């Protein structure tokens, strides 16, 4: 996980994973993923939304203020698959830069990812990663 996020203690799962969309740790469970180092974690979509669209840097700051981070590209694809109905059908920032002046986004109308100028305004959602 490349973004900085305070470690969250795993919830007591009693041998099974939550159902997709189940309330857990301040949000909705979106799936079990692994990071680049092979560590498994639960992905949780936080229940908060910013009041307006934000530039990429402002969206990153907002996500941190919520106790989470912007989702990366893999997580955005998982969020589209598991919790599409929780998103407005518009593009949302990811945590990943594309060069010096652009950042990746995911369009939640159809799941396609692309990049936009990081100074453009876009929607944002925050996630929490619970390492197992």
Give an account of the 3D structure.
This protein has 132 residues and is α+β, with helices and mostly antiparallel strands. The protein has one domain: Mannose-Binding Protein A, Chain A (Roll). Helix content is 16%, strand content 31%. It has two helices and seven strands, in the order E-E-E-H-H-E-E-E-E. A four-stranded antiparallel beta sheet has the order 1-2-3-7. Strands 4-5-6 form a three-stranded antiparallel beta sheet.
Radius of gyration: 14 Å
Count up the helices: 2
Task: Give the SSE string.
Answer: EEEHHEEEE
- Counting structural domains, the number is 1
**Regarding quaternary structure, how should these chains be classified?**
single chain
Low-confidence regions: none
What is the CATH homology-level superfamily?
A: Mannose-Binding Protein A, subunit A
Q: Briefly note the CATH topology name.
A: Mannose-Binding Protein A, Chain A
Average pLDDT works out at: 93
Secondary-structure-derived class: alpha+beta
